[in-house]
Amino acid sequence: xxxxxxxDRVTARDRLTVVAxxxxxxxxxVTIFLVFAFGxxxxxxxxxxxxxxxxIPGEVLYLATNQCITRIDASGANRREIVCPGRVDYLARxxxxxxxxxxxxxxxxxxxxxxxxxxxxTVYPTAVTPDKVGPIGSYPSEQRSVLGEYVTVDPDGSVxxxxxxxxxxxxxxxxxxxEFRTPQFFTWSPDGQWxxxxxxxxxxxxxxxxxxxxxxxxxxTLVTAGPNASPS
Length: 232
Description:
38% of the residues are buried. This protein has 232 residues and is mainly beta. The chain is built from no helices and 16 strands. It is globular and about 50 Å long. The chain has one domain.
């Protein structure tokens, strides 16, 4: 697949910025905080890092708790560090081999553009680079897939797929989280075969990035993190 193209900011000691890139188009960003919780009801799908799904192509970029920008396959496998710049507030993908990251400051958000192949970096004074249409972290608000489908989430957490031309809905995941927060739509993959959701359990300081198959045949937790995910 190609790269996937909103929001409170919270300060905490462990922040994670995730950019989901399903096989090569544009960018997503979500800011989250890593923390572990045990002994509570967990409606989340299984960890993809424990059991990767090789059917899911592409990769995810994220800022780990050690402040290193890291790559992981969208399948859940093959994690590797790219660069450790220290503080990073925004992370975006420009194309197959180029990322931009930036830091908030009094004068705005300067941007550093990095070539993932050569490692070469270029620093720009603002959050808009010559080859990027919008500011760092921007992503489209379109919630319809290329197949014309939408994802809706019921109050009990059940996730449904539907379209505007056919009656009825198809359930693709049961969250079993009526007593907790329900998952929220994040974005579709460019081919419309996979959907990303964000989930925050009320009873634990974790936020997660889920990947679901559009036909309901697969559900997995790609990244587990903590309070406040902010797609932008």
